[in-house]
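Sequence, structure tokens reproduced for absentees:
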Amino acid sequence: MLNTFFALMLFAPPTGGQTPNQSWQLVFPVLMFVVFYLFVLLPQQKQKKSKEQLLDSIKRGDKVVTIGGIHGTVAGIETDKKTVLVQVADNVKIKFERSAIANIEKQETGDKLAAKE
């Protein structure tokens, strides 16, 4: 049984005399590609699309977290939309690439915060 398994995996005809059906030799690689596409490539494409939408929605005043873990508020966006100016403290602004923004923190309005108290 082990010899048959290795023969199928290596696409070699078994030593039993009969040659395997040639169409089965094509099914295995096609099936492997379909599984790879469904479990690796498709989720990666969805994640990339959602990240791009997140970066496109950045506007002045948003609270953001960079990939380095720096928290700050967007003070400005360059006209080419490739760099973002983030204020991290009073009179301290750092320029980041837009792709360096990891997350936009959702800030609740003052009315909702006052209602929770």
The beta strands are 63-66, 71-77, 83-89, 92-97, 101-105.
